[in-house]
Task: inverse folding
C-alpha cells in the first residue's frame, strides 16, 4: 500500500511549482516534508492527495495508477494550517462528517467518533461548536476528523503553525503517538527543522520545488547530500564559507587557519565549501579537537537556557548556538571554538565530499 | 476598574452631534410638530392631538398603500436575494473574467433611479418598446398604463434589473473571503457541491446576506421614483406605494398634518421591521 510518485512535476503557467520528483512513501511511516515557505510542500501534498493533477509523471498507490483519480475516490484526509471545521456543526458532527458522507451506519459512526475524540481528548467537548473551542481544540477536532476516516494517507500541512507555543508543544508530543500502530502513510509538512528531528521517521528536504534528499530523518540530518539539504535542515542557519585545504590545514580567508580534523583528512588539497552547524561553534572549549576563531559580535540573543551569538566571520554572518548563558557585548570580539571534526565539506557543485554531523 | 471622567471628550463629539442634529433630528422634530397640529399656512397652528394618527391608521387608502408596499418588498426580496446569491455562486473566483464580471455587475448600480425608470418606460411601451412589443407579439396582453399586472411586472423587473447586482456583489465579496482550504477540505471529505454550499458557503455568508436583506428591504420599502416615472402610481392607484401616497397627501392635497403623521408611521414601520430582521437573523447565529 505504498504511495509512489514517479517523475511527477507541476507547472502553473510559466512557473514550475514542483520539478520532476520521485518518492516512495511506505505504509506505517511518518514522513516529514521540510522546507521554507514556497519550497513546494503544499503543492506536493496536493499532488499526493489528488487535489491537483501533475503536469507530467504518474502517481501510484498500492500498485495502481491513481494519477487522474479524484480526491473523493482516494482514501485520504488532510489537516491544514488554518483550523478548518464546519462552523455550524458540533464537534461530534464535525468528526462524524466524513463517515456520514461515506454512508456508514449510525452505530459504527458513534463508536468511531467516540474513539477518535477519546484519542484527541475531545470527549468533554463533543456537544460544543468550533467557535466555543480554543485554537488547540479546534485543530484537535480537525485532526480527529482526519483520523476517524481510517485513511490510507493522512496529510498534515503545517498543522501546528497557527497555535501558540504551549499548545504546539503539547500537540507535537501527541501526534506521533496518534499514528503509531496505524498502517497509514503520514505526511507532515513543516518549516521547522526541530519538528522533523522530534518526529523522527523519514524526512524529505525541499528547496525551490525539488526534493533534495529523502531518507531516515537522523540520516538526512547527519549526512546532508548537498549544501542545499544542509541549509534546509538547519535552524539557526548553518554557517558557510569558502575554504582551502593546504598541507593538512584548513584556511579561511587570509587570517583564519586550523588543523584539518577527521572530517576532511581524506580530502585532496584544493578549494571547498565548508558548513558548520551553529551548535558546533561554542564559547567554551570542550574536550574535542577544536579550532579557535575570532569575530566581531553583531547580535547576542540570550534565552533562559541558550545563547545565540551572531558574529562577523570574514565578511559573512555566522551564528554560534550554545547551552547556558554566555554574555557578549555587541561590537566586542568574541573568541569561539569550532568543533572541526563535525564540519561538512562540499565540492564546487555543492555535493558532500567529507565530514559528518 | 476606575474610569476617569473627562468632560473634554464631549468637545470632540460635538461636531457629529451638530451634524446629526441638522440632518436628522431637526427635520424629524419638524415633522413631529406638523403631525400633532392643524395648519393652513401663514404659520398659524392649532392643536390637533393624535387626530391625524387616528385618521391615517383608520384610512383604507393607507391600508391599501401599505399592503401594496409589503407585497412589493416581499416579491423583491424573494427574487433578488436568491437570484443575487445564485449569480455570485456562478461568478468566477480567479482569472481575467473576474474584473469583466465585476464591471458588468456594477453597471446597473451606477444608473440613477429616474433614468432607470425612463429607460424601462420606453423599453416597455406596448407599441414601440422592445420589451412591450415582444411581450404582445408572443401573446401576452401587456400594457402598463392600462393593466395593473403589467405595471407591477414592469416595476418588479426594473428593480430586479437595477438591484440584484448589489446582492450579487455583496455575496461575491463574502464568497471570495472563504479560504481555498475550506473547499479543499470539503473535497477531501467527499462532500458534494450541495453540501459545500449548505455547510460551508451559506454559514459564511450569513452576515453578508443579513446586510443584503436589510439594504434591499429598506430601499425597496421606500421605492418612489421608478413607479412615478413609469405610471405616476397608476394605473388607478395600482402602483401607489407608501412613499407615493405620502407625496400625494403632502404635496398634491397639501394635507400637511396627515402627511406628517403618515411619515412618522412609515418611518416607525421601517425601523421596527429592520430591527426585527436584524435580531432574527443574528439570533439564528447564536443557536
Result:
Amino acid at each position: 500500500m505504498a504511495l509512489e510518485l514517479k517523475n511527477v512535476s507541476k507547472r502553473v503557467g510559466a512557473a514550475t511549482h514542483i520539478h520532476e520528483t520521485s518518492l516512495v512513501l511506505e505504509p506505517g511511516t511518518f514522513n516529514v516534508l521540510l522546507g521554507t515557505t514556497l519550497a513546494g510542500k503544499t503543492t506536493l501534498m496536493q499532488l499526493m492527495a489528488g487535489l491537483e493533477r501533475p503536469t507530467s509523471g504518474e502517481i501510484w498507490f498500492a500498485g495502481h495508477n491513481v494519477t487522474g483519480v479524484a480526491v473523493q475516490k482516494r482514501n485520504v484526509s488532510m489537516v491544514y494550517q488554518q483550523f478548518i471545521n464546519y462552523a455550524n456543526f458540533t464537534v461530534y458532527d464535525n468528526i462524524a462528517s466524513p463517515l456520514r458522507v461515506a454512508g456508514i451506519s449510525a452505530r459504527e459512526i458513534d463508536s468511531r467518533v467516540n474513539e477518535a475524540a477519546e484519542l484527541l481528548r475531545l470527549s468533554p467537548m463533543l456537544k460544543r461548536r468550533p467557535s466555543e473551542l480554543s485554537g488547540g481544540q479546534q485543530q484537535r477536532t480537525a485532526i480527529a476528523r482526519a483520523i476517524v476516516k481510517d485513511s490510507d494517507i493522512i496529510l498534515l500541512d503545517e498543522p501546528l503553525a497557527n497555535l501558540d507555543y504551549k499548545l504546539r508543544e503539547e500537540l507535537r508530543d501527541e501526534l506521533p503517538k496518534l499514528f503509531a500502530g496505524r498502517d497509514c502513510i503520514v505526511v507532515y509538512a513543516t518549516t521547522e527543522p526541530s519538528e522533523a528531528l522530534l518526529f523522527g521517521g523519514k524526512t524529505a528536504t525541499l528547496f525551490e520545488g525539488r526534493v533534495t534528499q529523502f531518507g531516515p530523518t537522523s540520516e538526512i540530518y547527519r549526512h546532508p547530500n548537498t549544501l542545499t539539504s544542509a541549509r534546509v535542515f538547519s535552524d539557526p542557519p548553518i554557517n558557510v564559507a569558502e575554504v582551502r585545504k593546504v598541507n593538512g590545514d584548513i584556511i579561511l580567508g587570509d587570517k583564519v587557519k586550523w588543523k584539518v580534523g577527521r572530517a576532511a583528512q581524506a580530502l585532496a588539497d584544493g578549494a571547498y565549501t565548508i558548513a558548520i552547524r551553529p551548535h558546533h561553534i561554542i564559547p567554551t572549549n570542550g574536550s574535542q579537537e577544536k579550532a579557535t576563531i575570532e569575530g566581531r559580535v553583531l547580535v547576542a540573543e540570550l534565552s533562559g537556557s541558550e545563547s545565540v551569538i551572531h558574529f562577523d566571520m570574514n565578511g559573512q554572518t555566522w551564528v554560534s548556538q550554545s547551552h547556558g548563558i554566555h554574555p557578549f557585548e555587541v561590537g566586542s570580539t568574541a573568541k569561539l571554538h569550532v568543533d572541526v571534526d563535525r564540519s561538512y565539506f562540499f565540492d564546487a557543485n555543492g555535493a558532500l565530499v567529507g565530514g559528518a554531523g | 476598574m476606575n474610569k476617569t471622567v473627562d468632560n473634554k471628550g464631549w468637545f470632540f463629539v460635538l461636531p457629529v452631534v451638530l451634524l446629526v442634529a441638522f440632518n436628522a433630528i431637526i427635520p424629524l422634530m419638524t415633522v413631529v410638530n406638523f403631525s400633532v397640529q392643524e395648519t393652513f399656512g401663514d404659520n398659524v397652528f392649532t392643536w390637533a392631538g393624535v387626530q391625524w394618527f387616528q385618521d391615517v391608521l383608520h384610512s383604507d387608502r393607507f391600508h391599501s398603500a401599505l399592503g401594496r408596499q409589503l407585497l412589493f418588498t416581499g416579491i423583491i426580496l424573494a427574487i433578488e436575494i436568491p437570484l443575487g446569491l445564485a449569480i455570485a455562486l456562478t461568478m468566477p473566483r480567479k482569472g481575467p473574467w473576474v474584473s469583466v464580471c465585476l464591471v458588468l455587475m456594477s453597471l446597473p448600480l451606477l444608473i440613477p433611479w429616474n433614468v432607470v425608470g425612463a429607460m424601462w418606460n420606453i423599453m416597455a411601451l406596448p407599441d414601440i418598446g422592445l420589451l412591450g412589443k415582444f411581450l404582445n407579439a408572443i401573446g401576452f396582453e401587456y400594457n402598463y398604463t392600462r393593466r395593473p399586472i403589467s405595471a407591477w411586472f414592469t416595476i418588479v423587473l426594473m428593480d430586479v434589473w437595477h438591484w440584484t447586482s448589489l446582492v450579487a456583489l455583496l455575496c461575491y465579496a463574502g464568497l471570495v473571503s472563504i479560504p481555498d482550504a475550506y473547499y479543499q477540505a470539503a473535497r477531501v471529505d467527499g462532500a458534494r457541491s450541495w453540501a459545500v454550499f449548505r455547510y460551508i458557503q451559506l454559514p459564511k455568508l450569513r452576515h453578508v446576506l443579513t446586510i443584503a436583506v436589510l439594504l434591499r428591504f429598506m430601499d425597496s420599502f421606500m421605492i418612489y421614483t421608478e413607479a412615478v416615472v413609469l405610471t405616476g402610481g397608476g394605473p388607478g392607484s395600482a402602483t401607489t406605494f407608501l412613499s407615493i401616497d405620502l407625496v400625494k397627501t403632502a404635496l398634491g392635497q397639501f394635507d400637511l398634518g396627515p402627511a406628517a403623521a403618515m411619515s412618522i408611521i412609515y418611518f416607525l414601520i421601517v425601523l421596527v421591521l429592520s430591527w426585527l430582521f436584524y435580531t432574527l437573523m443574528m439570533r439564528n447565529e447564536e443557536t
Notes: The interface with chain A takes residues 179, 181-182, 184-185, 187-191, 195, 199-200, 203-204 of chain B (CB under 8 Å). The longest strand of chain B covers residues 37-39.
